[in-house]
Amino acid sequence: MDALRSWVRLQQRNSLVSLVTQPLNPLLWKEPGTQSTNLDASRDCQESSIILHFHGGGYAMCRGSEGDSAFAANLLVKHVAAKALFPSYRLSSNDGGRFPAALQDAITSYHYLLELGIPPGKIILSGDSAGGNLALGLLRYMADNPHLLPPPSSVLLWSPTTDFLAAKEPLKLDQSRNSSTDFLAGDFSAWGARGLTRHAPSAATPHFAPKSHPFFCPPPIWIQLGGLEVLYDDALEFAENMRGRGNSVVVYVEPFANHDIFYLGGNTGFGEEAAPAAKAASAFLTGRLHD
Length: 291
Fold this sequence. Notes:
Strand order of the largest sheet: 2-1-4-3-5-6-7-8
Number of strands: 8
Oligomer: single chain
Shape: globular
């Protein structure tokens, strides 16, 4: 971990990446179909929880904007929590987007909520696909630096990518037993993964591949998977490995769905299946609140 911190400081001095003081283009959803760029913590988040969600897109595309995130955001605010914040983060497909740029932006987004006075117990960390990988990176950062950032109340992961090192090789996905029932192609995943990991130090490996580098974190983790998606087996292995470290992990499977119905279900024909998944996430959170 010390090697990783030293490398990050070096990149900052060389101006290859830069820290920001507030989330990039944050979009706050308050109810289905409505969004805002302004977050009033005293009014919006003192009585109810807020979801901090990181969008998918292989670290190479999407922005967390209304155009690409409306379907997912509406699911969250309708079924899971009253408020959901969708920040952008720097993408590996752009200059200055290689590791640790996205992680820095994730840290900034979480710290932003804390600076507004929102208690960590009111924050639900969430991410889909590559955004799930980013959420796990943020969670690992918190676990490694408990004196810097307190953990959120819970974690929601939707079809998370748990091994971006393996994703650099297209055959990893293309030879999956579920490749014939999923749209996620190996060359797409490799595009983002190669840009993300380019010139990264070996100390960063746990951030890219939490499947094989489990860690303990206090908040409970809920994972949604499609039974026919190419990331299914990796995610199940990740869940078991995290349980082995003492974590509370619940897996919800939509058996006949493919990848990331939470974010893309409106486009891939799985919109009806996405709503029960969101309701299951809500039930998980409600159960947690009653523990």
